[in-house]
Specification:
Layout: E1 9-12, H1 16-27, E2 32-36, H2 42-47, H3 49-70, H4 84-109, E3 113-117, E4 121-124, E5 127-130, E6 133-136, E7 140-142, E8 146-148, E9 161-163, E10 176-180, H5 184-195, E11 199-203, H6 215-228, E12 231-233, E13 236-244, E14 247-254, E15 257-263, E16 265-268, E17 272-274, H7 281-284, E18 307-309, H8 320-335, E19 350-352, E20 357-362, H9 365-370, E21 375-381, H10 386-391, E22 397-403, E23 409-416, H11 419-431, H12 436-440, H13 451-458
Parallel strand pairs: 1-2, 1-7, 2-3, 7-18, 9-16, 10-11, 10-16, 11-12
Antiparallel strand pairs: 4-5, 5-6, 8-17, 13-14, 14-15, 19-20, 20-23, 21-22, 22-23
Helix pairs in contact: 1-8, 3-4, 3-5
Length: 472
């Protein structure tokens, strides 16, 4: 049991990553000081995962009701309006409840864990200053998270724009929205705003939406968004932005021609940067990459002994579960150096919470080839799943990547109804080094969307269109 009078660990940040590290440290018997300059709980609970998925799910209700009407399920109340005040109050109540239960109550009831409000900045590798006080420690975990990047567009400062953060705090729904960027934030919030009644245009600089997602899955989602009425433009070069009365104007080159896109609001969705301004990493001697993210090794150690980093500030898979796991690896390494704890990113699943959802885990086709595998691929339309026709959600695709010699599953990428749930099974299969045969011979509930993984695995060596229901 550690009994030093000084803290055994200082954590910069108080979000999901920081809390995971703090709780792990207390299990080692450590006394932990956590420093937070903003709101307890960080991005995920306050203006990220929780509020966004709450609104996305609410928008899904409205969309599902419209699908029900097409099946003959008429509604007595045919009003199409949305009570935005009630909707946004619901969002705030969900955030408040989870912040209280998952952070404030935990903090209050956890011996050895103390929160200090204020901006922490390094004075040297073993000292930080906060609120005119200094604190020394032999171990630091930097978990300050990330913040929205604002592109350097001429005239953007004159515009009425939102970021991924402010878009989830607003209590007003704009009539129209132009989104600059085509990544996860753009497609999630774009579809949500569209389904709530906002006219949405997405402008992506690259050749397609979701550039880090496998092409088949990304294109399947794009087809859905376009079919719903969202305008999606690729290969867009933003030239300037301006404000004309009540509307914002974005000038852009598309295919060698100048276009203007107007909307009541703009949304900047070009990615996340590290929230390290003001913490003086240079005085601690902590190295960063060209984008400002903290460079870490597989044990989450930084370039300076005694300082670890975890979460969005490292720039690796910017999702809450990965950040939490990074923090646990870091803390275990701090207090038990012989544990051999390392990060395994290949078995970490990710999801994009559109409808249909995008899920991914493991190697892409390209990364598997680069890793030296002789790759076998099977791609299957979601319409091959019987349950998809029951629910009416037939859009999407499932792609599996395997090692041709051993049959070992290397990656799964999908766009599918309930895809965020399905990808968990695939992640377990990868972690356990399952083969395609293992997946193909695992019994699934019939009918279920999850059966799609079994069908896709069976498709490596047979024509699944010739299989009867429940056939092995």
């Amino acid at each position: 049991m550690i009994t030093n009078s000084e803290p055994d660990l200082i954590i910069l940040g108080s979000g999901s990553t920081a809390f995971a590290g703090a709780l792990r440290a207390t299990s080692h018997g450590a006394r932990v000081l956590m420093f937070e300059k903003s709101v307890l709980g960080g991005t995920c609970v306050n203006w990220g995962c929780i509020p966004s998925k709450t609104l996305i799910h609410a928008a899904l209700f409205k969309h599902e009701a419209q699908l029900g009407m097409k099946l003959g399920l008429g509604l007595e109340d045919k009003r199409e309006g949305v009570d935005f005040e009630q909707l946004f109050d619901h969002r705030e109540e969900v955030v408040r409840k989870l912040r209280q239960e998952r952070y404030l109550d935990v903090l209050k009831n956890m011996p050895g864990l103390e929160l200090v409000k204020g901006t922490a900045r390094f004075i040297d590798p073993q000292t930080i200053a906060v609120n005119d006080k200094t604190y020394r420690c032999d171990r630091f975990l930097v978990a300050v998270g990330g913040e929205p990047r604002i592109p350097a567009i001429p005239g953007i400062e004159e515009c009425n724009y939102l970021t991924s953060r402010s878009a989830l705090l607003t209590k007003l729904l704009p009539k129209s929205l132009v989104i600059v960027g085509g990544g996860v934030i753009a497609v999630e919030l774009g579809q949500m705003y569209h389904r709530l009644g906002c006219r949405v245009t997405i402008l992506e600089h690259g050749p397609r939406l979701l550039p880090t997602v496998e092409r088949e899955a990304a294109e399947a989602l794009r087809d859905v968004l376009v079919a719903e009425g969202i305008k999606v433009m690729a290969d867009v070069t933003i030239c300037s932005a301006d404000r004309a009365g009540d509307v914002n104007v974005v000038s852009a080159d598309v295919g060698g021609r100048r276009h203007e896109y107007t909307a009541e609001r703009l949304l900047m969705a070009v990615g996340t940067g590290p929230a390290t301004d003001g913490i003086a990493l240079e005085k601690a001697g902590v190295a960063t990459d060209p984008k400002g993210f903290i460079v870490t090794d597989e044990r989450m150690r930084t370039s300076r002994a005694g300082i670890w980093a975890a979460g969005d500030v490292t720039g690796r898979m910017l999702i809450a579960t990965v950040g939490a796991r990074q923090a646990i690896v870091a803390v275990d390494d701090m207090f038990n150096e012989e544990c051999g704890c390392t990060m395994d990113y290949l078995s970490a699943p990710m999801a994009v919470f559109t409808d249909p959802e995008v899920g991914m885990v493991g190697h892409t086709e390209e990364s598997a080839r680069q890793a030296g595998f002789d790759v076998a691929i099977n791609t299957m339309p979601v319409s091959a799943i019987p349950k998809a026709h029951v629910t009416g959600h037939t859009a999407g695709v499932i792609k599996m990547i395997a090692d041709r010699q051993t049959g070992r599953l290397l990656g799964v990428h999908l766009t599918c109804h309930r895809g965020a749930e399905m990808i968990n099974e695939a992640a377990l299969a990868l972690k356990l080094k399952a083969t395609v045969t293992d997946m193909a011979t695992t019994m699934h509930v019939y009918p279920s969307i999850g059966e799609g993984l079994k069908l896709c695995a069976q498709g490596f060596d047979r024509d699944i269109s010739r299989l009867s229901c429940c056939a092995e």
